[in-house]
Here is the input.
Amino acid sequence: MIKLNNDQVSSLLWLTLAVVIILASIPYGLGTLGSPGTGFLPFLTGLSMGFFAFIGILHSTWRRRQGVGWKPKIIGLRWQKSLLVLAALVAYVFFLVPLGFSLCTALFVGFLLRAIQPQKWPVVIGGGFGAAAASFLIFEVWLQAQLPKGIWGF
Here is the structure.
């Protein structure tokens, strides 16, 4: 049985995904450089991913020959903060329409700033409302995307 290190396994997974993307993009038509088809951009994305995955395989194989082996990454990890972020994202999805984009984003970013990497309250409040304002300007004003307004109309 071939023993692979962590980087070899992950690079092989990325290479497999790249091949799937390349094969799935071909039926959509690649077109030409002057007139690209629908599958052109996914095809280039797959090629790029495959290129970097191949470099990763070469690099990790070189490291494997130096003695870097498989190391279990999951054992001993603390999952509390990751699960907290996941729960916050789920809550964001559920409260986005009722509360509106701006308020929900301010609360979400403020929660992350306070709960994940505890910051002082001025940073939490400023960061939350600053992120909400910047997001509002980018999506609502500049890109003219229609965002949920919520019960307060903003």
Remarks:
- The chain has a mean pLDDT of 88.
- The chain has five helices and no strands.
- Residues 80-142 form one domain.
